[in-house]
Amino acid sequence: MSDRKRPFTFSHTHSTSLTIFRVVQYFARFYAWFLLARGNPANTLSASQWNSLKSGLSSTRKLIRLFKPIEHLQAALGTTSSPTQLEFYAAVARQLSYAGYLAFDSLVWVNGVKFITLNKDTAFRVNMISQRFWLAGILFSIAGGASKLNRQLKSLKQLERSSAKSSEKGDDAQLAHDEIRVIKAQSAAVRYQLILDLLDFWLPASALGYANINDGLVGIFGVITSVMAFNLQWKAVGLKK
To answer: What is the pTM of this model?
Structure first.
C-alpha cells in the first residue's frame, strides 16, 4: 500500500483515535495548569474551558475502552511461555492489571454519565482502585521489560565476543552479524517501552498521592507518552503493509 493511502487506514483504528484523544487531553491538562499558574484572573475562564475539554476527552476515551478489559483478559490467557519465569508472570500480571484498571475505569464512566449512582466516597474508592491497577500494570511492564533487556544485553555481549574471536567468514559470519543486528533492534524496542512506562508511572502515582507533582508536569508526561505510543502504532501499521 502506498504512503498516500496509509494515513487514511491508520486514522480509522480505535487505538489511534484513543491515542490522539489522549494527546489532546493531556495537553489540555498542561495548558489549563499553565494558564492558572500565571496568576492572571483573566485566564480563569480559558483555563476552565481547557479543563472542560480535558474532562470531555477523558469521558470519551472511557466510553471507547468500555470492552477493553475483555481484550486484556484474552491476552493474559493467550500469553505463551517466555524465556524466563519472571517475564512470563510479569506479562500475565500486566494484562490482568490493565483489565482491572479498565474495568474499574468503566465504572467511573458509568457513574459519571449517571447511568448508575455511586455516593461520593464509593466513587472515590472505585477511582483509586482503578489507578492502583493501572500503576500495577505499569510496574509489571517495567519488571518484565528490565528482565528482557538484561537477557538481551547478555546475549548480545556473548555474540559480539564470539564474533570477535571467530575466524568464520562468508555465510556463517553474515548469519552472526544478522543475529547481532536483530538483538540490537529488539533491545532498542524494549528500551523505548521502558522509557514510556517510566514516564507513564507518574500519572497514576500522582493521582494516588504517591508523587507530589503538579498538573503541568503530569500533562507533559502524558503528551510525551501518548506521542511515543502513537509512534509505535504507526510503525506497527507500517510493518503490516
So the answer is: 0.88
